[in-house]
Design goal:
Elements lengths: L7 H13 L12 H8 L3 H13 L3 E4 L3 E4 L5 E3 L6 H5 L6 H8 L4 E10 L3 H7 L8 E10 L2 E11 H4 L14 H8 L4 E12 L3 H7 L7 E10 L4 E10 L3 E3 L7
Parallel strand pairs: 3-10
Antiparallel strand pairs: 1-2, 4-5, 5-6, 6-9, 7-8, 8-9
């Protein structure tokens, strides 16, 4: 009896399973479509539809002149535990993100720019600063797992704290990330609060920088950190493709 022909969803499921199981590692190229069509006994049009499905969910990304790159990553857990000093500095990590990516067997990479800037109104108000003034230092980071951009951060600090410190260095030189740097400067944070927008469409620029289609949703995190004295010393905004994050919170019940 002849084997039943696979539809594009079954082909996508088979390729997805091979990706998750490591047959096609993250960052590698999938075989070309003719080879996949032969492997699954299907037409190229069906394989192409399967590729479109996998691309839409973020498992692969067509790259002109190169082929189809595997971009699947297991979701990283976003929780209070990631902000502990141990997690931020484990094995010399430069912040929680570094430790999370290394745990996946991938190499973290940072693109960092630093400038003195006028913060948006919402950030100025969170920091307790005047609006309409250049009174902040902002560290903007595009963060990669291997060659895959998976996160964009912008960390804002009052200029009177950050000026002439390691925070002005446009390089990933801070062991433990910006929280460790602020603690060394005498501003250890004891309380943080976050507002999480779990799913929205990216802007054109955001989609370009994260190398995703404009139809892919992103998660946005607005993080505010303050000292025991109640001074807000950091506001960090984070943007990531939604499939790369799982939000986990532990809280007491009365």
């Amino acid at each position: 009896m002849a084997s039943p022909k696979l539809g594009f969803r079954e082909i996508a499921a088979a390729i997805r399973e091979d990706i998750v199981n490591g047959r096609y590692p993250t960052g590698s190229l999938l075989p070309p479509e003719p080879e996949l069509a032969e492997r699954y006994g299907a037409s190229r049009s069906l394989v192409n539809r399967a590729m479109t499905l996998l691309s839409a969910e973020g498992a692969v990304r067509p790259q002109q002149g190169r082929g189809t790159v595997v971009t699947w990553l297991p979701p990283m857990v976003h929780s209070a535990a990631r902000y502990s000093r141990e997690a931020r500095e484990r094995n010399g990590a430069r912040g929680a993100f570094d430790g999370e990516v290394k745990a996946l067997g991938l190499e973290p990479r940072h693109e960092i720019s630093v400038e003195r800037a006028q913060p948006p109104v919402e950030i100025a108000e969170a920091l307790g600063l005047a609006t309409g003034e250049v009174n902040c230092l902002v560290r903007r980071r595009r963060l990669f797992a291997g060659e895959i951009p998976v996160r964009m951060n912008a960390s804002w600090f009052p200029l009177d704290i950050a000026e002439n410190t390691v925070l002005t260095e446009p390089a990933p030189v801070i062991r433990g990330g910006v929280k460790s740097a602020l603690a060394e400067l005498g501003y250890p944070q004891t309380v943080a609060r976050e507002r999480i927008t779990p799913s929205r469409l990216p802007t054109e620029e955001e989609a370009h920088l994260l190398k995703i289609s404009p139809e892919r949703t992103v998660t946005e995190i607005f993080h505010v950190g303050e000292t025991a004295e109640g001074r807000v010393v950091e506001v960090t905004t984070t943007l990531a493709p939604a499939q790369y994050l799982v939000i986990e919170h532990v809280f007491p019940l009365a």
